[in-house]
Amino acid sequence: MHACFLALRVCTWPLHEVGLGVCNLLGLLAACAALYFGFGFSLTSACAWRENCDVWGLVLLALSAACCTEFFDSYRHFSLVESVIFAATSYIEILAFVPAVWMVYQCSKKSDDVAGEGSRKGGNVQQEASAFFAFLVPFYVLEDVVSAFRVRGEEPLAAAGHIVHFIILLDFACFLLAHIYNPDKVHGSFLCWLPDQLWV
């Protein structure tokens, strides 16, 4: 999904100048590399398109929501098409973390048929998660940390928001990777942090 919104950003960068054009292009190339090496995704494989119909459904949901919200927005600064594309990139970026959470959910249900189906497809959840976060963390260093330094003088609250977003992303990445690589240890160590008084 990150590749989808980055492709939209790269295609529409002359219209909106969302982010840095070079960073969006590098992010798109890194996302494609993570898809190819980590997930075995190929644009030429019809099977890969069918296997990922849930992701395409989320992209379609984001595009539909962008069309609806921008159609009813009377305070547009751009044309309807430009506004829909701009909103769609934001909505797809928000929904981009749903597949990662779904992957962890499938991993935690090891005895469930869904997890068995995922392993029969040849997908290694640890390899996929590693490839995903190897792309994601450097991308958001450019997206959030660099943006925070660029706007810190004019908009310090926006800069703080970028930094908080990056810290939350790092927490999310560490939690998911720890949960995928060793879910039992994460659960046991988390409970040790909570005082006994909270359980009463």
Short description:
This protein has 200 residues and is an all-alpha fold.
Secondary-structure topology with pairs:
Layout lengths: L1 H15 L4 H19 L6 H6 L1 H20 L7 H16 L2 H11 L4 H8 L4 H27 L4 H26 L1 H11 L7
Helix pairs in contact: 1-2, 1-5, 2-8, 4-5, 8-9, 9-10
Report the principal-axis shape. Answer: globular
SS element count, helices: 10
Helix residue percentage:
over 70%
Number of strands: 0
Question: Given the helix and strand composition, which structural class is it?
Answer: mainly alpha
Percent of sequence in beta strands: under 5%
The low-confidence runs, each spanning 5 or more residues with pLDDT under 50, are 111-120
The major β-sheet equals:
none
Please, how many domains? 2
Note the gap between the termini. Answer: 43 Å
Computed Rg: 19 Å
Order of helices and strands: HHHHHHHHHH
Average pLDDT number: 78
Keywords: Membrane, Transmembrane, Transmembrane helix
Transmembrane segments: 18-43, 55-72, 84-105, 162-181
Report on the structure:
The chain is an all-alpha fold and 200 residues long. The protein has 2 domains: 1-96, no CATH class; 111-200. The protein is 80% helix and 0% strand. α8 packs antiparallel against α9 and α9 crosses α10 (183-193). The longest helix is centred in the last third of the chain and has 27 residues, at 125-151. The model is unreliable at 111-120 (pLDDT under 50). The chain crosses the membrane at residues 18-43, 55-72, 84-105, 162-181. Keywords: Membrane, Transmembrane, Transmembrane helix.
